[in-house]
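Regression report. Comparing outputs from two consecutive submissions.

Submission 1:
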Amino acid sequence: MAIVGASTQRRKFGNKAVRAFRDAGWEVFPVNIRADRVEGLEAVATVTDIPVALDRVSVYLHPDDTFAALDGIAASQPQEVWLNPGSDDPRVVARARELGLEIRRGCSIVDVGMSPADYP
């Protein structure tokens, strides 16, 4: 799975997600255009840089950045895309649906039975 907007700052949800999904047993690919590593994992600049098929993409970006990333996300053909709070404005959702993406809106960390509060 890819975490788009993975952060090197542990207080940010893009970092908490990397830790939560890793702890839940997922193979995690952090996507961050500025970092080489996030939580010890090699980071890539875009989803299209990931060399394997993706089950899930979880997005932690500002809506404008999310909108800009959608074509690349669609090109990777994930089974589902989670738009976490703050990334899921109506324009983003409409474009994602136009691209045929299977959208989930909500906190992807909670979906795997964890809480962001578990990751200070």
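Submission 2:
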Amino acid sequence: MNYFKISLGIFLALAASRFIPHPPNFTSLIALSFYVPAILGMRFIPALLISLFFTDIILGMHNTIFFTWGSILFIGLLPRIFKGSIFKRISGSIFGVLVFYILTNFGIWTIGMYGYTLTGLITSYVLAIPFFGYTLISTILFSTLIECTLKFSEINFNKKII
């Protein structure tokens, strides 16, 4: 039952940031993708992906959905590398932004949106820079919020809650 309640909380946190009007890519997605497995353990990655799936159904599926989901899965594995200090964790979530940017924009290129040339690939990345900025700012903001919550609730980060 705890798994269900926590999974529902993950869904609500993700859905709130995706459904409330916001600038493009300004959501808690990357921060949650990093911190959910870091705090709760790897067994909550499926809950995160299922939450992403349901919010994507409502927001609309797209041709690069598997690149998006794949990047989220990859980001969920990063806490194993970036554990320890607050600096390492925030760095890990920021690295997650880079992973998301690289993988999802490669996905855009693979559907031929800008042509299957090196110029098309570069165009895909250059045109996504504003989205990268929003993703970076939101991830730093949500990661800081999560870190403050952890600090003020006196949760020992190195021990799992569950």
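Expected: both submissions complete independently.
Actual: both completed, but the second showed a warning that disappeared on reload.
Relevant detail on submission 2: The mean pLDDT is 91.
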